Amino acid sequence: MQAQTLQAEVRETSGKGPARQLRMRGLIPAIYYGPGIDPVKLTVSPVELRTSLSGEWGRNQLLSITVRGEQKLALIRDLEIEPVTREILHADFYSVAEDRVVAANVPLKTKGRSIGVHMGGALRLYFRELPIRALPQNVPAAIVIDVAELDLGAEVTVADLVLPEGVEVMYKPERRVLFVDFKEKKIEEEEVAEAPTA
User: Fold this and answer.
1) Residue 129 near residue 58 (C-beta atoms within 8 A)
2) What is the pLDDT of residues 163-195, one digit of tens each?
3) Domains parsed from the chain with CATH numbers
């Protein structure tokens, strides 16, 4: 994954008043923090930030942020979003390094149409996302299961997943992630679990 460059400025003020003034100027408050460093209050453009996160990696996009004249690698740890307008109000950037493993949640997707579905079955995907550990530059955009050869009754467990080198799923190997059901059913929303927040 290529890091996206994001410009940032160090800010001295904090609180609701200064934050409101920043937003009137088209900027938002942010913070940069991580292991062994003192938190740094920043100002960034929400437009540039949204553009940086609009690619296939989404919130797992590796960012290169200018902090006090130095380029620092970071991942988004939290975004405060206005519930009505969906505007970004605040961002938390977590310091990472290319030689230090990070935790992330990545989408779980399928490709192809399985033999079992052709025969009247249905795919049951048990997770929308999977929690993984990897070096930040190796975090995949998604984990994809090729279901074309799966017959009725077939299952896919964590151990069956084809993962990029250096990527580890943080579930037990026998954990089921997909099943080709014998009955024709739509996947119910409540049957699809979200991965735990990293």
Assistant:
1) no
2) 999 999 999 999 999 999 887 444 444 455 555
3) 4-95 (2.40.240.10), 102-191 (2.170.120.20)
